[in-house]
Amino acid sequence: MHIKSNAVLFPVGLVFLRDHADRELPTPAIVREDRRRAWLSIDDPHLDELLSDADFYADPDGPAGRENRSLSPAGLKEAAARTAAAIRRARATHEGSCHAR
Known about the structure:
Number of domains: 1
Structural class: alpha+beta
Helix content: 40-55%
Strand content: 5-15%
Largest sheet: 3 strands, antiparallel
Distance between the termini: 28 Å
Order of helices and strands: EHEEHH
Shape: globular
């Protein structure tokens, strides 16, 4: 996938992003990466899929809900919640800057 040079990038943690990709779901392209984070493009066509999956996992009654926490890898629900929050924050910031022009 080719990323425009003026693309708006934002970081997300790698824990949930890797889990999402490991389940062979449509995954945004990683533009840049360090040991803990990946930078994604706000315009990536697979961002909605990642957000939907993150919301599903972050839901307390979602996979490995309250009664079955042992079925979920440690921290995955929390990582999903942080991923969803990062996407929403990036979109809100991007939309705000577009309207300011």
